[in-house]
Amino acid sequence: xxxxxxxxxxxxxxxxxxxxVRVPLSAVLAAWAGRKILDGLAWLVRHPLVLLPLxxxxxxxxxxxxxxLWPILLALVGLVAGLVxxxxxxxxSYTRQVSWRLRGLVRGRFMYRFAWQPAMVTTGLAVHxxxxxxxxxxxxxRSTGAVDQIRVRMLPGQTIEDxxxxxxxxxxxxDAQECRVRSVHGSRRELVxxxxxxxxxxxxxxxxxxxxxxxxxxxxxxxxxxxxSYRLRLLGTHLLVVGAxxxxxxxxIWSLIASLGPGIRDRYAQVWxxxxxxxxxxxxxxxxxxxxxxxxxxxxxxxxxxxxxxxxVLEEAxxxxxxxxxxxxxxxxxxxxxxxxxxxxxxxxELASLTAYVQDRDAKKRIxxxxxxxxxxxxxxxxxxxxxxxxxxxxxxxxxxxxxTRIALRLSEAEQVGLVLGSGARDRGALCDRIPESLPGVxxxxxxxxxxxxxxxxxxxxxxxxxxxxxxxxxAEQSGAELTGVQAA
Length: 489
Description:
Layout: H1 25-46, H2 52-63, H3 70-89, H4 91-122, E1 127-129, E2 132-134, E3 137-143, E4 147-153, H5 160-165, H6 167-173, E5 178-184, E6 187-196, E7 219-224, E8 229-232, E9 239-242, H7 249-259, H8 261-265, E10 269-274, E11 291-293, H9 303-328, E12 343-348, H10 352-355, H11 361-375, E13 383-389, E14 405-408, H12 415-421, E15 442-447, E16 454-458, H13 463-473, E17 482-484
Parallel strand pairs: 9-13, 9-14, 10-11, 10-12, 11-17, 12-13
Antiparallel strand pairs: 1-2, 3-4, 4-6, 5-6, 7-8, 7-16, 14-15, 15-16
């Protein structure tokens, strides 16, 4: 028996002729019109603000008596006045709901949909079967001041990797600086193309003023490449910061401390600061810290004594962790910070100094053991570790994979991107090795469970800002942090 697509007696493949079905032109036109009407209704549901002018005109015509154009003119004046007031009183909301929506409509119609077919053909993303051309479908176009987001339905057989490979060619086709490909949660057939029209991260980012009552699961610490603020989760996670010298690791640490200011002042957040570099980075904010260890070798009789100080503080954090585990077991799976049981953030400015360069073997063993314990169950009971390091290799940082949230700033080698953000992160646009030295604080944030890293720039915190933080957020009842290795003033 001959198989479909196989050879028949050594000849060519078996050809299957399908009978053609003739459909009246009126039925084709009716189906096309019905599809367009349904698409229009779905679009109105997604963009309800488009109906606002029509509603205003109708209300004006009903309220104002008299013939002519007066009702319409009065309604238009009222609409314009309302938009002006909206823009002045709530500029961010106006920008999101009006300016960006109009920008998305215009750029979607005249930029992307107009050139979509030739772009798909030249980048190899269109498919031709039996002389017929099939194109990926544009589902929607959204725009911000810096990024155009194109939601696309892929053709059968295509993957995100196929589109990521074509990213540079798509960026050139649509005159964008970069094109990044992002997945859509819950859909394996769709993706979102991020076209970076212009880069808002070339300018330094001011320090974000924290809200009176902060949300530890959503701290404003950086600016995203679409111009919006990036909110970082600190509750229930650990954070690793990796970057070469001068890449801005201090900006990340101080941005986090600044965002925690109200929590430190109100005592439902504590910072335990470990600065193995002799306090050079963190000493100016020591009044904000409940523990501050810099282990100055001049104050220690031996280098080993200096290293033991760090082990002791980390073991204190382990004691707190175990006590909370016993209290919360069977009650809740995630600790809620309170004044009595605050969130403890253990900040380590240079992890390699504690994990790879320690001379005292006993101290090194104690430090690695305490770190491993904290990084395993500690985040669930309100003990978060924030560590910074230059070299992400396993022999330098063996506990690297225990950090659910990782930030990669400028890196020295392309291979290091995968070590920090995971395999394939560089192919998805995390070009950390290409970040120029002139842009400190620019990096990519990767979170376990989210495939694509987010490009951001952290706030630039100066000594003047740190002085203001100390003045504004030092707890009133705190006469001084518990210091180790620091001479009393």
